[in-house]
Amino acid sequence: MERFDAIVIGAGAAGMFCAALAGQAGCRVLLLDNGKKPGRKILMSGGGRCNFTNLYVEPAAYLSQNPHFCKSALARYTQWDFIDLVGKHGIAWHEKTLGQLFCDDSAQQIVDMLVAECEKGNVTLRLRSEVLSVERNEEGYTLQLNGASVQAAKLVIASGGLSMPGLGASPFGYKVAEQFGLKVLPTRAGLVPFTLHKPLLEQLQTLSGVSVPSVITAEDGTVFRENLLFTHRGLSGPAILQISSYWQPGEFVSINLLPECELASFLDQQRDVHPNQSLKNTLAMQLPKRLVECLQQLGQIPDVTLKQLNAREQTTLVDTLTCWRVQPNGTEGYRTAEVTLGGVDTNELSSRTMEARNVPGLYFIGEVMDVTGWLGGYNFQWAWSSAAACAQAL
Ligand code: FDA
């Protein structure tokens, strides 16, 4: 039986980073993954350019039953630490929007960087490794793999969440948690497009591909100001992905399609100058033409000139465009979700080390636990920060 100081399961963002840091600190680390290559989600992320962190990382950007849990790890390994590391590897990056940092070239550079860091720490990386069983005894943890047994005093679970099963996602981490008596909070898809009920979906079909700036509000009062995209399945775009993490089935979201325009004053001004201009053409100065035409066909925009639009109709119109209440049918689910909400209950873990409070030597890092960030590099930063906190303790 091969022996290591620590075994890390999952060669994704958190697992690779944790293994590298622990290895560099002198730990003999085995890093296992069931896939053919490491960091598959990293390669897919940020449209192939990996949004690896965010300039404005703060605990408020994370959802967790215990909102304080993430604070310690985020404060001890910050976005600036990761930006330094990226710089040391000569990876050029840029800020796209809202503090989101992307590689100039390719997400492959982040994977290559993590592989190089693992090599620097003499980490043993085994791909295509299926973990058949995990047992705990006096010496630590014994794992049966396909064809071998391995043992270590410490075991780190970095197997991620359930989103994108096609990229190797599995419930493995939750099963290990349950095996050792840890509570797992219910999981659901996060950062995911909404699907719509039939009549509305059909009515909006012609808008597929149209994107508009928006302000979107969930029933709990959470607000995001980002772009909304109409799709052939429903609604997507950053505004929808963000609010999806705060949405529960059956709830409504409220959408302002004109966040940058004071619509009533705009219509009044236009009416003074061009009273005979059609309402449709006036609104097309502020909204995509296809959206205006679709709303007119649906009877939401009266077919009148500005001087014909009476005060009551104007109030209704402003309400429709700035406070559009939509009740999604559901979400596209784990198939397209970027993250999984819920997971291993953080009350079971130490926020300093990520170790299970009642199971010495067992650690959980990254997305497998109940910490989920906003869209925009926050989830990778949680992977790096939780991995660094854990690595210090190995
Ligand atoms: P991650 O999922 O990265 O890694 C888990 C690893 O464990 C995988 O390699 C998997 O193969 C392995 N594994 C699972 N079960 C196993 C088993 N039974 N045995 C062995 N190995 C097993 N975030 C962000 O901040 N910026 C971004 O740009 C994006 N973009 C993005 C795009 C897409 C398409 C997705 C799906 C997700 C994102 N994300 C993101 C989210 C981000 O990818 C995610 O939060 C992190 O990858 C989580 O890192 P982990 O290491 O915890 O899990």
TrEMBL record:
<feature type="domain" description="RsdA/BaiN/AoA(So)-like insert">
    <location>
        <begin position="188"/>
        <end position="339"/>
    </location>
</feature>
<dbReference type="InterPro" id="IPR004792">
    <property type="entry name" value="BaiN-like"/>
</dbReference>
<protein>
    <recommendedName>
        <fullName>Flavoprotein, HI0933 family</fullName>
    </recommendedName>
</protein>
<keyword id="KW-0285">Flavoprotein</keyword>
<keyword id="KW-0274">FAD</keyword>
<dbReference type="InterPro" id="IPR036188">
    <property type="entry name" value="FAD/NAD-bd_sf"/>
</dbReference>
<feature type="domain" description="RsdA/BaiN/AoA(So)-like Rossmann fold-like">
    <location>
        <begin position="5"/>
        <end position="392"/>
    </location>
</feature>
<dbReference type="Pfam" id="PF03486">
    <property type="entry name" value="HI0933_like"/>
</dbReference>
<dbReference type="Pfam" id="PF22780">
    <property type="entry name" value="HI0933_like_1st"/>
</dbReference>
<dbReference type="InterPro" id="IPR023166">
    <property type="entry name" value="BaiN-like_dom_sf"/>
</dbReference>
<dbReference type="InterPro" id="IPR055178">
    <property type="entry name" value="RsdA/BaiN/AoA(So)-like_dom"/>
</dbReference>
<dbReference type="InterPro" id="IPR057661">
    <property type="entry name" value="RsdA/BaiN/AoA(So)_Rossmann"/>
</dbReference>
